[in-house]
Amino acid sequence: MPLIFLLGFVVIGLWSVVAHRFERTGVAGPAVLAAAGAGLVFIDVSGFAGAVGSESAEHVVELILAVLLFVDACEVRGGVFGGEGRSVARLVLIALPLSLVAVVVTGEMLMPSLSIFVLLVVACVIMPTDFAPAATLLRSRHIPARVRQILNVESGYNDGLISPIFGMALAAAIAWPTILAAVDSDKLSAENEAQLEEKLGEFFDAFFGAVPATLFAIAVGAVIGGIFGLCVRWASRRGWADASGIRYVMLLVPVITFSVATLSAVAANGFVAAFVAGIVYRIARTRRTDERTIPHEEIILVDEAGTLAANIVWFVLGAMTTVVILDGFDGRLLVLVALALTVFRIVPVYLAMLGSSVSWSSRTLVAIVGPRGTATIVFGLLAFNKLPDSEAYPVLAITVFTVVGSILLHGVIVPQVVKRRMPVLAPSAQAPASADR
């Protein structure tokens, strides 16, 4: 194990001992762990870069995202869309695509050297929302219950929707340079011809296989999540299972689902499968019961496992920040990040909510509260591992600046603005916040 990761585990352990003292600040955990990673990486910068870029690291971050997506789906209250189907549909089917298009178009103007597929990868990296950097907002007495519910449900669904687009764009981005080189070349060597054939296969698989892979993922997630959910409900009613045993089931379901979906014989999208498994498991587990959501004593293990995984990701973010600064970066990336965190979130949300039943003040809250966190880091690391260096390092820099900027904007500035501008709501007008990562 690289020394930097061993030290990371030590830091996370020490932070866990004192985290309760600082939990009211919300942003303290991500900020402290990121700062520790940024400082400790100097012990072995090249070793860290090599470890993060390894195939084993890729598998680890994929599994982390699968668990986090499962937890997101399990924590939605109420039905499939938490009782806010129309509002969530507007956000993920109108606002999110508009945001992705805005990032791609602006990226093409700012960085014409990057292909449209790389820019689509960038858009998929920086637009998913996640409340880890802004935990205090979910507990704020100034946020109405409906806004909390909409934001909670949206943060899970946009990850699930973006993951197949991300996979398709990443595969296309990897294949595209080889295809262009072949087009520009008059004659190909046998080696280059074989490489072109391989890349073309990946290119067409990415486009024509995206829909089947997503459909297979939905089927895999629905079957596994449904079977385990029904088994848990059946066993619980008869007293055959208790919370301690069910906790292990919930931790294993996303791992099993992701593993089955990514088998070569299945070739499905593991992220979509894990998210669907969480939705179906929750519905199957709670149907015809008094609970609106999964009991806390059952979900606590997978939730805490997700928190631990997210803490590792925050430490890695800090180390990545140092690597990006030492390597150097293009200042135009900061412009794109600043727009993505503000204009490209706010304007699409306002447009998507036109004619909706959501009040204008609530629309404003939904628009400005769009933090970026673990999903952005995981997607960014996956892209960094796959893309060539000339494209990987700009994506890494964008990932780092997006999350660090979100920590400052959504973890510090926005909570202060909400506190000063929004009235304190009565307890009946507030909904309990979902578990923070």
What does this structure look like?
The chain is mainly alpha-helical and 437 residues long. Helix content is 76%, strand content 0%. It is built from 18 helices and no strands. It has helices spanning 3-22, 28-40, 45-52, 55-74, 85-110, 116-126, 135-139, 145-184, 190-208, 210-237, 243-261, 270-286, 296-327, 332-341, 343-352, 360-368, 374-386, 389-421.
N-to-C terminal Cα separation, in Å? 25 Å
SSE order: HHHHHHHHHHHHHHHHHH
* Major β-sheet annotation: none
Low-confidence stretches are: 431-437
Mean of residue pLDDT values: 83
In terms of structural class, how would the helical and strand content be classed? mainly alpha
Gross geometry: globular
Q: Which percent bin holds the helix content? A: over 70%
Q: What radius of gyration results from the CA coordinates? A: 21 Å
Instruction: Identify the quaternary structure here.
Output: single chain
- Number of strand segments: 0
Strand content of the residues, in percent? under 5%
Number of separate helices: 18
Detail the topology: elements first, then pairings.
Elements lengths: L2 H20 L5 H13 L4 H8 L2 H20 L10 H26 L5 H11 L8 H5 L5 H40 L5 H19 L1 H28 L5 H19 L8 H17 L9 H32 L4 H10 L1 H10 L7 H9 L5 H13 L2 H33 L16
Helix pairs in contact: 1-2, 2-13, 4-11, 4-12, 4-13, 4-17, 5-6, 5-8, 5-14, 5-15, 6-8, 6-17, 6-18, 8-9, 8-10, 8-12, 8-16, 8-17, 10-11, 10-12, 11-12, 11-13, 13-18, 14-18, 15-16, 17-18
